[in-house]
Write a structure and sequence with these properties.
The complex is a heterodimer of chains A (1043) and B (416). Chain A has 1043 residues and is α+β, with helices and mostly antiparallel strands. Chain A has 45 helices and 16 strands. In chain A, strands 1, 11, 12, 13, 14, 15 and 16 form a seven-stranded antiparallel β-sheet that branches. In chain A, helix 14 runs parallel beside helix 18 and helix 24 packs parallel to helix 26. Chain B has 416 residues and is α+β, with helices and mostly antiparallel strands. Chain B is 18% helix and 41% strand. The chains are: A alpha+beta (1043), B alpha+beta (416).
Chain lengths: 1043, 416
């Protein structure tokens, strides 16, 4: 017993033996505040999951109620490793809430999340990333960055979605990560899963909403995915696409006359479909890509989510042609049936829209009629809309409604109605009289409130039409005499009399009546009385005495304003001798005044995006980005061509090439990638590319490569159908053929430029295969500054090194071979194959099919007396990752003729021979080719410094050197080296000749150097593939020894 | 995006708060409370505080206030808040202060799952129910015994499929599909009994308990009636556009398949009429009220649950009336006269008459009370809409199908 009680004394404040310490969840622990969380700590420290869960539930309860639970942090954070999923979840919730306050302790949990990020269960990976990125501790920024980058390429779309969500979190934690995050966003935007795209769009608008250029390449895909994305994603995506459309497409209503009258001028014809001819077809000038977006967005008007409907409305209003707006109006009207909060926002937007686009909502006038049960702010919005919508035709209906509203119990609403009647009176001239009569009728209402409001409004209306002033004046005069008006209204009535009734006989009587009680009037009324008195003294000279009386009353008034005004006005009534003021009094006090205009208070909300928070509030909210102005001319559509998915997809689709892309708009986003590049777009592309944003170096570079690639394709089609394709009806092929023929002369020149110092010239241009010819054609056509105009350039692997700036000295740049192919060696002797001779040569040009392939030129000569037909490659024996891309079969070879073809071989960086058979009408013959190691690489060049650093990395085992005899002639050495291996010289100083290359398959760097020393020279080869290094060193040493 | 959410009870206490980004002190709600105090029934849904924007909805006696620090589409937030309340109602069958307080852990887990960093993550009820099981006594007991938890450790398959609204592996012993076609008549009738405006707002609510992955098509006899429609995401829009049929793979359980609007352009039958006369004399202290209600254009159906709600002018102190059917009550504070009639059985027309006492000397000329009418008509869709057939593909069993029509008064308003 004693043991138990002492045990209890440690932990249980109540100290009662009846409460066993082993059951702390029993609720007996309502203790004084200073130890209130002890029990929770005990429960969390225990080993029972159920107790932990109970404790966590109570802690979450505290958080939910806003109580501070931060002192439990150490106890809670331990349980982040709990096996129980619910405990874990609750710990996550806790952690996210308090990590910011307890940064050091929070770091303890990070390793758990890092481990969970590798979990096979996608839900656990995702939730780990969620929590990790929600812990706002700046110390873990690099970890989160890494986690996001990994998760962005996770297999599970759910995890990728979470990664997209994490991006804005990291951005808000550390804005300096922006550039790197933008890269990830770019990647996620081109994701194919609808689940991911919506969140990626959200991340895009949160982090870099102004970088519209990121959208270009995935634009069509985004449009086609729009329908499949979940509703919240649709919302985010629509917002992004609206900004995009506004930035990239010219305003479709600009040159389109048909929309002008409905957009700008009030459109009195209530039937908006009155012009069937214009409406029948969408304006032809609409950009096809914009059309794609609008078509994809339109079904979303039928969404159950009001936010999505509004986002579509926003898109159509800001970017769509005016004649397509009516369905938008209809959908917005439908939203008026939604909960009151939605109504309020929608009405607000409609109110702003009706200021200019009245005709849009005119058919729905009755939907805005007001019920007594509406809340006041809804009533006021509807009233505003009704007033905006009223036309000459509908004004009687609206006025009849207003009559009912005026008698409403809701004072604010009744007052607004009177104001609205005033606006109608000014706006619609046919109704001015009716409105004024109605207002005058209200002047005699028994409700003072109504009367006061009415007087103020009458004052405004009468200012507009002087013809109807007389009855108003007499009514006002009557009211003034009966003393029933309150301050503002009384002042307005006096003004009314002064302004329009100065010659009215009753005016003097009014003045006399009011002057009698001058001292008791309000200040505003006194000021008006003064001007009435002066005006009267001008128009009715017999009242001057009364005017003087009023002025003298005002002279001793309590208000300095009144006294000042009196002193000023006295000069007009009792002019000092010699003053000219008196003569001009009439033109000063009774001039013709311009009509007042009463405008909708929603006019200035026009400037904000429809449906935005700023529009609702009528002022720009924090973080509000106005939509950019539409550009004058559309951005070239080619920017939006999706990059090709696989390069070979293009190879065999010559037939499709002349089809324009837009002939099948439905294939828009996803499908387009396969053949999305019509020849027209690609040829435009290259010229547009120069203008495109320089700041997007990465993406641009990526495009460059593909563009060039396509150019070569379009060239192919041209030359295969014979180079003179100007007769072809396709304008695009005209263009590209023109281009290619233009370039033809300059081509040779360029070649000379690029290979000025390689002594060996290409001997036999005419013998080259079509493909090669085109390759070079293409390389010339690409006049881009970013490209090295050599064969090596455009097929260089995109993954090799991060592409850096154009003039960056530190990059590794692929260059053309310094020595293009030696003499042909015999492959198949004429004896072996009944007269068909085959020779092979290493042209050292990159192979078109894959960058990993080494081009091998085979030239066939027919020494037999008959035609040899159908020369082709038959069986290939391949091991491992090796591959062969066959050459195009030669249909027939006349006696004595020869033809050359190029095949591509991926040797997988090994000099094992490849074997295949060549079959022809003369029979089949087996061939085996052993590549020299020097052909397995491609020449690259780099700065000397870079070479040295790379060299340092490849020391030790990966280095191999060979001693050779004394050498002196650098020129000769270089020539030998170039003959032996496809490497390029690196500008060198001193006695070390440096060369560099890159393996075809593995992309490993190969560094070769020759050290010239007085006694003996050394050849050193470095490559991470040791076999290659030693082989190369041997080969080069042998070649040099022959010198 | 939504930074924080506060749930406030009618007396102005914040009883739940949840932050998705940095903590925002709850004092920010004062701006909302201030506006609410100024006019309890007329709080604008969007309020601007100096550094925050408050977007709020009121439902079920509680107010949900979402706080954002920057520009955000107000409808996005409002729609989301409504979805939160819908989810609560789905889980706990109601959304009141007591129920939220009882289930704060589940509520917190739900909120955590629905929103990530202020952007919705999962809002489909089918997905949420797989992630976090709705509480019920049976499961609570089972969990205590077996040590299982309410929280799923695997990702619901729906999240990744292209039908995210349907959970997988649904099995029922009795396969049933029920459709309720509900139409609400919104109308304004003026003094003389003429219709000022009338519209029909319709819904098709479903309760679908079908095993497997059924693919349903619902065909209407007269689909041309619809003016404007909105659909649950499961409906294939292409087929609606081309063939005017609803083709969909339904979510499991209760959901709203479509809602439609038959607008003010088409003629809407008004199924009820009210003859009324109210005279309030300003000199005397007595006025007279007489009202008769009767059916009109009901196509032979009876009007049920008829109730009239009249907002009397301020000057009316009390009413002493006699009704030949139903009960009436008058609340002198809110000035609302409620007459609960019930079913109208012909040929007897419900009638109420009597005197009203008016405050002496009060101005009675400008008063224009209005009547709000409630009624339901079972087995009738007032627009004439009819479901022609329901076909099911993709499953072998024969489901039990049922369609129910009902017409109700929406905002049915008669001016006196």
């Amino acid at each position: 017993m004693t043991t138990i009680s002492s045990y209890n004394n440690d932990k249980v404040v109540t100290g009662e033996v009846e409460y066993p310490a082993s059951d702390p969840a029993s609720g007996a622990f309502f203790q004084p505040d200073y130890k209130k969380n002890e029990d929770l700590k005990i429960m969390l420290d225990g080993s029972k999951d159920s107790l932990k869960l109970e404790a966590m539930k109570r802690i979450i309860g505290m958080i939910a109620k806003g109580k501070d639970a931060s002192d439990l942090f150490p106890a809670v954070v331990k349980n982040v490793v709990s096996k129980n999923i619910e405990v874990k979840k609750l710990v996550y919730v806790y952690l996210v809430r308090y990590a910011e306050e307890q940064q050091d302790l929070a770091l303890l949990s990070i390793s758990t999340f890092q481990r969970a990020l590798k979990d096979p269960n996608q839900l656990i990976r995702a939730s780990a990333l969620r929590v990790l990125s929600s812990i706002r501790v700046s110390m873990i920024v690099p970890i989160v960055m890494l986690a996001i980058r990994d998760s962005a390429s996770d297999m599970s779309p759910y995890v990728r979605k979470t990664a997209a969500h994490a991006i804005p979190k990291l951005y808000s934690l550390d804005p300096e990560q922006k550039e790197e995050l933008v890269l990830i966003i770019d990647k996620l935007l081109s994701d194919k899963a609808p689940l991911v795209v919506g969140s990626a769009a959200m991340a895009f608008s949160e982090v870099c909403g102004d970088r519209v250029s990121l959208i270009h390449k995935s634009y069509r895909k985004l449009c086609s995915l729009l329908a499949d994305v979940d509703e919240w994603g649709q919302l985010a995506l629509l917002n992004v696409l609206t900004v995009y459309a506004k930035t990239c497409f010219p305003d479709p209503n600009e040159e389109n006359y048909s929309s002008d009258d409905s957009a700008d001028k009030p459109f009195y014809d209530s039937d908006s479909s009155g012009s069937p001819g214009r409406k029948s077809a969408p304006s032809p000038s609409l950009d096809p890509d914009l059309r794609l977006l609008l078509r994809a967005a339109k079904p979303l008007l039928q969404s159950r989510n009001a936010g999505v409907v509004m986002a579509v409305a926003q898109l159509f209003y800001h970017c769509g042609p005016a004649q397509e707006l009516p369905p938008i109006a209809k959908a917005m009207i439908r939203l008026l049936r939604a909960p009151i909060e939605v109504q309020s926002v929608v009405l607000n937007s409609i109110a702003a829209l009706t200021v200019t686009k009245r005709s849009l909502f005119e058919p729905f006038l009755k939907s805005f009629f007001i019920r007594n049960s509406d809340p006041t702010h809804i009533k006021l919005l509807k009233l505003e809309i009704l007033t905006n919508l009223a036309t000459e035709a509908s004004a009687p209906v609206v006025l009849r409604e207003y009559q009912t509203y005026v008698t409403s119990n809701d004072k604010a609403f009744a007052a607004a109605t009177i104001q609205a009647i005033g606006r109608l009176a000014v706006a619609i001239h046919t109704e001015t009289e009716t409105c004024l009569n109605g207002l005058l009728h209200l002047l005699s209402s028994k409700d003072e409130w109504v009367v006061c409001e009415a007087v103020v409004v009458v004052k405004r209306v009468v200012g507009g039409g002087a013809s109807s002033a007389a009855p108003a004046v007499s009514r006002a005069a009557k009211l003034l005499r009966s003393d029933r008006l309150a301050g503002n209204a009384r002042a307005a009535a006096v003004w009314l009399v002064a302004e329009h009734g100065a010659s009215h006989p009753r005016a003097a009587a009014v003045l006399a009546h009011m002057a009698a009680a001058f001292a008791h009037q309000e200040e505003l009324v006194k000021l008006q009385l003064l001007s009435l008195a002066v005006k009267l003294s001008i128009t009715q000279p017999d009242t001057v005495a009364m005017c003087r009386y009023v002025l003298s009353l005002a002279r001793y008034d309590a208000s300095y304003d009144v006294r000042d005004r009196a002193r000023l006005l006295r000069r007009f009534v009792d002019p000092p001798p010699g003053s000219l003021l008196h003569q001009y009094a009439a033109s000063i006090f009774c001039p013709d005044k311009p009509k007042p205009t009463i405008e909708s208070s929603f006019k200035d909300r026009q400037q904000y995006t429809v449906g935005s928070l700023s529009q609702y509030l009528g002022s720009a909210a924090a973080g509000y980005r106005p939509l950019p102005a539409a550009p004058r001319a559309a951005l070239p559509a080619a920017l939006r061509d999706a990059p090709p998915v696989a390069q070979q997809a293009q190879h065999d689709t010559d037939t499709q090439k002349n089809k324009t892309f837009y002939s099948e708009p439905d294939s828009g986003g996803s499908g387009s990638s396969s053949s999305g590049s019509s020849s027209s777009s690609s040829s435009e592309e290259s010229s547009d590319e120069d203008e495109s944003d320089k700041e997007e170096k990465k993406t641009d570079k990526g495009n460059d490569e593909t563009n060039n690639y396509r150019l070569s394709n379009s060239g192919t089609s041209d030359s295969e159908t014979d180079s003179d394709s100007s007769s072809s009806d396709n304008s695009s092929s005209d263009k590209s053929s023109a281009e290619s023929s233009d370039e033809q002369p300059s081509r040779t020149k360029k070649e000379e430029e690029t290979k000025p110092d390689s002594g060996v010239q290409q001997q036999k241009d005419n013998e080259k295969s079509n493909l090669e010819l085109l390759l070079e054609l293409d390389e010339v056509a690409s006049s881009l500054p970013t490209m090295t105009p050599t064969c090596g350039g455009f097929l260089s692997p995109p993954t090799t090194t991060p592409m850096q700036g154009i003039g960056d000295a530190d990059s590794i740049v692929p260059v053309g071979a310094s020595w293009a192919g030696g003499a042909a060696a015999e492959l198949v002797s004429r004896v072996r194959c009944g007269g068909l001779y085959a020779g092979r040569r290493w042209p050292r040009t990159p192979h078109l099919f894959s960058q990993r392939m080494c081009a091998l030129e085979i030239s066939f000569t027919n020494h037999s007396p008959a035609d040899v037909t159908n020369v082709r490659l038959n069986k290939k024996t391949l091991t491992g990752s090796r591959a062969i891309h066959e050459f195009a079969p030669i249909p027939s070879l006349a006696p004595g003729a020869s033809a050359s073809v190029t095949m591509g071989v991926d040797f997988a960086d090994s000099i094992q021979p490849i074997e295949f058979t060549i079959i022809s009408s003369l029979g089949e013959v087996g061939v085996s080719i052993t590549p020299p190691v020097g052909e397995l690489m491609r020449a690259v060049t780099m700065s000397e410094a870079r070479w040295d650093t790379e060299h340092k990395k490849l020391r030790g085992m990966t280095e191999c050197d060979k001693k050779i005899g004394k050498l002196e002639d650098e020129q000769a050495i270089c020539k030998r080296v170039f003959e032996t291996a496809n490497v390029a010289a690196v500008t060198s100083t001193g006695n070390l000749l440096r060369f560099a290359g890159r393996m075809m398959s593995s992309q490993d760097l190969v560094l070769l150097s020759v050290r010239l020393e007085p006694a003996a020279s050394t050849v050193t080869a470095n490559c991470s593939n040791m076999a290659v290094a030693s082989l190369l060193a041997n080969d080069v040493a042998q070649a040099l020894n022959r010198l | 995006m939504i930074h924080s959410l506060f749930i406030i009870n009618p007396s102005g206490d914040v009883f739940l708060e949840k932050h998705w980004r940095s903590v925002i002190p709850r004092s920010v709600c004062d701006y909302y409370l201030e506006a609410q105090r100024a006019s309890p029934n007329d709080v604008p849904p969007v309020l601007a505080a100096p550094h925050h924007y408050l977007i709020s909805i009121q439902r079920g006696g509680v107010a949900l206030v979402a706080v954002s620090k920057q520009e955000v589409a107000p409808l996005f937030v409002i729609e989301f808040l409504h979805r939160v309340v819908d989810t609560f109602q789905d889980y706990f069958s109601d959304c009141t202060e007591t129920i939220i307080k009882e289930n704060y852990v589940v509520v917190y887990e739900l909120l955590d799952e629905m929103l990530d960093n202020g952007f919705p993550l999962a809002t489909e009820s089918n997905i949420l129910k797989e992630l976090i099981k709705p509480p019920n006594i049976l499961r609570t007991i089972a969990n205590t015994v077996t040590g299982k938890s309410n929280v799923s450790s695997i990702l619901p398959s729906g999240q990744l499929s292209n039908v995210p609204w349907r959970r997988s592996g649904v099995k029922y012993a009795n396969n049933e599909a029920y459709f309720d076609v509900v139409e609400e008549v919104d109308a304004i009738i003026d003094k003389s009994g003429a219709t000022v405006s009338a519209e029909i707002q319709g819904y098709i609510d479903c309760c679908i308990k079908l095993s497997g992955m059924p693919d349903l098509t619902l065909t209407f006899v007269n689909p041309r009636l619809f003016d404007d429609v909105s659909f649950h995401p499961c409906v294939r829009f292409k087929r609606w556009e081309s063939e005017r049929i609803l083709s969909f793979i339904p979510p499991d359980g209760n959901f709203r398949l479509m809602s439609y609007h038959i607008g003010s352009q088409s003629v809407v039958a008004i199924p009820i009429y009210v003859r009324h006369s109210l005279t309030l004399r300003s000199n005397g202290d007595q006025g007279r009220l007489e009202m008769t209600v009767g059916p009109k254009q009901t196509m032979g159906r009876t009007l049920e649950n008829v109730a009239l709600e009249i907002c009397m002018p301020k000057c009316v102190l009390n009413c002493s009336l006699t009704a030949n059917q139903g009960k009436y009550s008058y609340d002198p504070v809110s000035k609302v006269l409620l007459w609960d009639i019930g079913k109208i059985e012909l040929p007897k027309l419900p009638n109420i008459r009597g005197s009203v006492s008016v405050a002496t000397g009060a101005d009675t000329s400008g008063a224009n009370p209005s009547i709000n009418i409630h009624f339901t008509i079972p087995q009738l869709a007032v627009s004439g809409l009819r479901v022609s057939r329901l076909d099911m593909y993709g499953a072998k069993y024969k489901p039990f199908k049922g369609v129910k029509y009902i017409t109700k008064a929406g905002k049915f308003h008669v001016r006196m």
